[in-house]
Amino acid sequence: MEVSSSGLALPLPWHESVWGDLNKTIEQGRMPHALLISGPSGIGKERLATALAQRLLCAAEMNNYACGVCKSCQLMSAGFHPDLSILQPADEGKDILIGDVRKLCSTLDKTAQQGGWKIAIIVPGEAMNISASNALLKSLEEPQGKTLLILVAHRPSLLSATIRSRCQKKSLLPPPLDTARQWLSEVSGHDANVDKALEVAAGRPLLALQYIQSGTLQDQQILEGVIEAVRRGEQSFIDAALQCSKLNTAIALEWFMNYLHLAVTQDAAVQSNQNVYLFLDRLNHMHQMIVSGSTVNQQLLWEELLMSWGQVFAKR
User: Fold this and answer.
1) Which residues of 21-56 are buried (b: 16+ CB within 10 A; e: fewer)?
2) pTM for this structure?
3) pLDDT tens track for 241-252
């Protein structure tokens, strides 16, 4: 996470407009009791939420940011502030459970230990199961003074309509390509794979940085090679599925969708093939099924997809 010299989070360059709006809201005393920050993963929503929480909890803010030197900022820099709670799933891809939400609500109901705001960040908000969402409603319907609940959501449509209706909404988009490229080049030490990483990450800078730092681009290149080989009829869908089943399924399906979107815009033969769009619908359905937590046999999933993919371009 990009941080200031004090170790606190900073909003990213493409957050400038929304950060300005949030500061005006604070200055005018109109901060809501619940805020929903939504948008694609990998664009810094959680960082923005953290920077906002730190700005509100700071006892001596300077220039619309947390000062980094007061007692509250020192507590946050140390990783602990009694009036800031962050709720996430116990394991990636798992649900946020009702017991965790009830505990959080109980914490929010208590008086702030530092005499200021009490803030909770839930990320991702859509990870709350139905019971957890219902447990949260009481805090949303009967908010305490100077209490802020920040929901960070990658797919806000999965949140209940009741919860969404009780939040002030801030929707974020990926930054312009030039902005993303400049930022990623600087933070990656001018890595040679900046442009490729942004392409694979569909313009989402933090996700692109993750790909560079983890070496994941090699896996994407393997997938792209398999897709091309099946498309040309140079590899059987069974052998191709065996290779793909070794990859992270959710990520690989997203790469496949990005590949298709690019192909449609760059390749006239693909653009004119109506079967491509039917296949893309199927790919989207599979991706949604995986990210929703469904358990599937990966080998069979890839065999089915890649057999269909080969048929998209089969000469009849």
Assistant:
1) ebbeeeeeeebebbbbbbbbbbbbbbbbbbbbbbbb
2) 0.84
3) 999 999 989 899
